[in-house]
């Protein structure tokens, strides 16, 4: 057997799918940064339409300078760079854009925390021009401590509404009151133990940010559900009234009822089209919130409510409101369709009954016409026979001069049966030829 000749790049000759690298790198999209305590992090989430999402790239170039070259690639959905003394991270999501600023200049003392936020070192005019609408803003202070006491936490958080838990298998503790403060930001404190690695800290901070962003994105559907509830209620009442009217409606009312049902179906479908996408997106965001909380791997701290318990209690009514609104829309649309089908079936049945009555009437008319035709045929046979026999009588009277032995009356009497039969047979044969039977 001959020796194998190694090929330097054997896969290079295989046709490669144009999206292979893009799809492969999807699992590496928006990786968590390695973070170290002490640090302050500020994150801003802007809700953007497609045009504003594109504008965010251009706006970002103003502060990134040469670092913004990668933004020219439309497939780039996240970028990490440096803005002055701050680390910076930009992320492009399906419906929003996030800007995170990391400052390592924090002393690590919670008493000094309010005077040290990362966003304060960002150009205020540049922040004011961020494309989109602010939906979430969060400060996170990362400190090296086993567990801050309530006096320290009270500088940042409302201890009357404080909640917290031990996360990352006990290597860190997180605290928040989930309130928006006077500066427009909500706040978290992360206290890291000695066993907390930088990568794990980065993932924990990212999950806290995502919990807030996804929570707010999910709740955008709640006002829509509440606004649509009154419209759905009116439509349901209209449908109930029409269903009652249909039971007693006459034939003259059915056309108007069909028009009203069609209009009602149009209104419901319009409402469904306006809100369905938001409700389905909300369901996905609620699920992401659940996933991020589960990934924190919380364990209870004495006397404090965990984030999972807080979210379950506060988000479940909102989640159920959106789910019920979507269910009501779908159920109402189905009910309108059933009532419309019922009314159409009734109209079609009445049309069939009317058509049957018309056919019966036509059949009766045709029978009458046939009878009249038969009568006319009998008269025709008699009339034609009369004229033929008369002609033959005249012929016999003239033929007597040439020796015809019978009188004209006797001749007419003799030929009469043969004439009648011949005329009748001729008419029947003519009818068969005209009817295609011959």
Sketch the topology as an H/E string, one letter per element.
Answer: HEHEEEHEHEEEHHHEHH
Beta-strand residue percentage: 5-15%
Structural class: alpha+beta
Low-confidence stretches: none
Shape: elongated
The total of helices stands at 9
Give the mean pLDDT. 82
- Largest sheet geometry: 9 strands, mixed
| Sheet with most strands: strand arrangement | 2-3-4-1-5-8-7-6-9
Please tell me how large the radius of gyration is.
Answer: 46 Å
Amino- and carboxy-terminal Cα gap: 92 Å
Q: Count the beta strands.
A: 9
Instruction: Tell me roughly what share of residues is in helical segments.
Output: 55-70%
Q: How would you characterize the overall build of this protein?
A:
The protein has 438 residues and is of the alpha+beta class. It has helices at 20-24, 50-64, 124-128, 150-153, 198-219, 221-248, 251-296, 307-399, 408-434, and strands at 39-47, 78-83, 86-92, 96-103, 133-144, 163-167, 172-176, 186-192, 299-300. Strands 2-3-4-1-5-8-7-6-9 form a 9-stranded mixed β-sheet, with helices on both faces. Helix 6 (221-248) runs antiparallel to helix 7 and helix 8 (307-399) runs antiparallel to helix 9 (408-434). The longest helix has 93 residues, at 307-399. The two termini are 92 Å apart.
